[in-house]
Amino acid sequence: MTKKTTLLQFFHWYYPDGGKLWPEAAERAAQIAQLGITDLWIPPAYKGASGGYSVGYDSYDLFDLGEFDQKGSRATKYGDKEALAHAATALRDNGVRVIYDVVFNHKLGADEKEQVHVYKADANNRNDINDQGFDALAYTRFTFPGRQGTYSKFIWDYKCFGGVDYVEQPDEKGVFKIANDYGDDGWNDQVGDEKGNYDYLMGADVEFRNPAVVEELKYWARWLLETLPCDGFRLDAAKHIPAWFFKEWADHVRDSAQRDLFIVAEYWSHDLAALQQYIDLVEGKVMLFDVALHLKFHQASKQGDGFDMAQMFTDTLTAADPAHSVTLVANHDTQPLQSLEAPVEPWFKPLAYALILLREQGVPCVFYPDLYGASYKDKGSDGQEYQIDMPIIPELEKLIQARQRFANGVQTDYFDDKNCVAFSRSGTAEAPGCVVVLTNGAESGKAVSLGTELAHKNWRDLLGNRQDEVTTDEQGKATFPVNGGSVSVWVLAETL
To answer: Taking the C-alpha atoms of 89, 93, 99 and 101 in order, what is their torsion angle to the nearest 10 degrees?
Structure first.
């Protein structure tokens, strides 16, 4: 039986420095595969502006995978190129696909300044651009002196960028539109409409209207496919990048690979209509994270029994367009003290994971700290330092395994109560099904009809949250209980 796609985000924002991640991925490869993970999403593997300390989103040199002495180190935060190649090969050898995170939106850490002509834009309405421009120095020239033209001789200069947030002579911070051959008519279209136009995010903003830039980013993808085991991409900051580019780029990389690649874009919006519009613009070439569902998990975990569980999938991408939905409980941006902080409380995480791992719709993505734990310190937005502990979710391993073993057959929903909801999977001739019951309120249960073929069968809770056994009647019906604020996954006793 073909394994159901299950993604693991194999890092978090505060993963320790010192080149530990690639060796850990190689070491865990066999265990990850046995668990039922099919795809491993790794962080940006190339050199960031902060060198060996970079999480990877301060994109500097796409071609430096921890091979060249640049930005104060040879290796990246996660290890050197050799360790990356070893990890990718170990994963592939165990049947796990490798998904690379890539930041195309901006570059940071320029090697040289250039004289540019810029126009200041209103930070809160980027379409409001001053008529009067001025000359200044900007960090827009990337020559990659440590690499010296190996793999690519392309030099990035001001013609490759649409804007910056800092200039010198005069020294000024803000949002500045760069005058060049490609951007005189304002910012890129087909981007998010927050702040009027959300083309500009940070650093030196990549100008996709420059054909040389587009060709270089296509070439980089071909190079990566030839260099390392690569099965797909996670595309950062998609709402700041014109949709036409990713449509064109996704077609190109798939044609180059001559096979399908898993491509998911981060379009961070809670607005279902915005996600749907983006999928239309890229002609369905990429999947998107279901941000609306993630927000519901966050709210449900905070509101307790005040949240209406029957509405969990209302206005979500998973309900509207499951073929393009990647579901998640948490990621590096939503974890405590990060930019999109919206944590899901630990008590609710088993419920949330059951809702993404055991249902038919969407491709689930598991977050590293939920599987392996995390502990870190950082300053909050109030300037105070906080100690954050993200505990291992004890039920998670069983839920991932259950996806491969029991998430089979027709799905029937019982989302008919504000607090206690359930769904069943009928199973198939080859593989068993399950009954999943969860509540955000007091101890409860759900009457579920499974049909006469499952009459007089004994069922047990795979998670061990309930110790009792449930037996279906002659019609294959039974009431399946669940503890307060908990989830139970009921499977045929004979399968345990």
So the answer is: -20
- For the domain 107-206, what is the CATH code? 2.40.30.140
- 266 in catalytic set: yes
Domain ranges, ordered by start, for the chain: 7-104+211-402, 107-206, 409-495
Q: Which CATH class is domain 7-104+211-402?
A: alpha beta
Q: Which residues contact 314 (CB under 8 A, 6 or more apart)?
A: none
| Region 409-495: CATH code | 2.60.40.1180
The answer to whether 390 and 334 have CB atoms below 8 angstroms apart is no
Residues whose CB is less than 8 angstroms from the CB of residue 24 and which lie 6 or more positions away in sequence, other chains included: none
Task: Note down pLDDT in tens along the chain; length 496 residues.
Answer: 689 999 999 999 999 999 999 999 999 999 999 999 999 999 999 999 999 999 999 999 999 999 999 999 999 999 999 999 999 999 999 999 999 999 999 999 999 999 999 999 999 999 999 999 999 999 999 999 999 999 999 999 999 999 999 999 999 999 999 999 887 679 999 999 999 999 999 999 999 999 999 999 999 999 999 999 999 999 999 999 999 999 999 999 999 999 999 999 999 999 999 999 999 999 999 999 999 999 999 999 999 999 999 999 999 999 999 999 999 999 999 999 998 999 999 999 999 999 999 999 999 999 999 999 999 999 998 999 999 999 999 999 999 999 999 999 999 999 999 999 999 999 999 999 999 999 999 999 999 999 999 999 999 999 999 999 999 999 999 999 999 999 999 999 999 9
Determine how many CB atoms are found less than 10 A away from the CB of residue 378.
13
Smallest CA-to-CA distance from 421 within 303, 304, 312 is with 312
Q: From the candidates 266, 290, 321, 370, give the one annotated as an active-site residue.
A: 266
Among candidate residues 236, 321, 370, 461, the one labeled active-site is 236
